[in-house]
Amino acid sequence: MLNLSSYTDPELVDLLKKDNHTAVNEIYNRYWKKMLLIAWNHSNDKTVAKDIVHEVFISLWERRHLVDVLNLPAFLATAVKFSVYKYQQRESRRLELAKQNYQFNELIDDEEKLDARFLQEYIDGIVEEMPEKCRLVFRYSREMGLKNNEIADKINITEKGVEATLTRALKIIRGELKNYGLSILIALHTIYMLFR
């Protein structure tokens, strides 16, 4: 394995764009402590800070061909701060949902409602990330209640195309729910309840 400790940041970024795994390891070793400190200072939560730093370095690797990094420490610090901000926004939304939907006198019903709202938000996020046609067909069907022939007329594809796209959308959702760590039984039950 090549020792890259004497390489400059621009040289490491150049190697990174050439799919060099050793370069990302060197970048990680060089900056993870600083990024952890930034994440911790902004989140005040050590576990959250560790997760965010881990995700930022994974994202750097995954997006190595898509981003232009001129100043590596500044780029990483900005990514960490933005990730903390996004995390705090999500948590704030969850707390707001909890306030709106949680009453202590009906514990079980409200917990179920809250879980259903969280799951609905998660599924909405999955739908947002779908390819455009897939997202459009899914929303026409599930949110607006249009029939397949109405959707086909609206976006100018065949009914078979609508069916195939809906099947693809549901497959994406099921796959993401599995990745999220929910059991098959809960996921299938929820999807059934959501779409019946």
Largest sheet, described in full?
Answer: none
CATH homologous superfamily assignment of the largest domain: Winged helix-like DNA-binding domain superfamily/Winged helix DNA-binding domain
Distance between the termini: 56 Å
Task: Find the CATH topology of the largest domain.
Answer: Arc Repressor Mutant, subunit A
Element-level helix/strand string? HHHHHHHHH
Report the total helices. 9
Strand content: under 5%
Total count of domains: 2
State the low-pLDDT regions, or none. 103-108
Number of strands: 0
CATH class of the largest domain: Mainly Alpha
Helix content: over 70%
Per CATH, the architecture of the largest domain is: Orthogonal Bundle
**Rg of Cα set:** 22 Å
Class derived from helix and strand content: mainly alpha
Which shape, going by the Cα principal axes?
A: flat
Q: Mean pLDDT across all residues, rounded?
A: 80
What does the secondary structure layout of this molecule look like, with pairings?
Elements: H1 9-17, H2 21-43, H3 46-62, H4 72-101, H5 107-129, H6 132-143, H7 148-155, H8 159-180, H9 184-195
Question: What report would you give on this structure?
Answer:
The protein has 196 residues and is mostly helical. It folds into two domains: 82 residues, RNA polymerase sigma factor, region 2, helix turn helix motif (Rna Polymerase Sigma Factor, Chain: A, Orthogonal Bundle); 90 residues, Winged helix-like DNA-binding domain superfamily/Winged helix DNA-binding domain (Arc Repressor Mutant, subunit A). The chain is 80% helix and 0% strand. The chain has nine helices and no strands. Helix 1 packs across helix 2. It is flat. About 3% of the residues have low confidence.
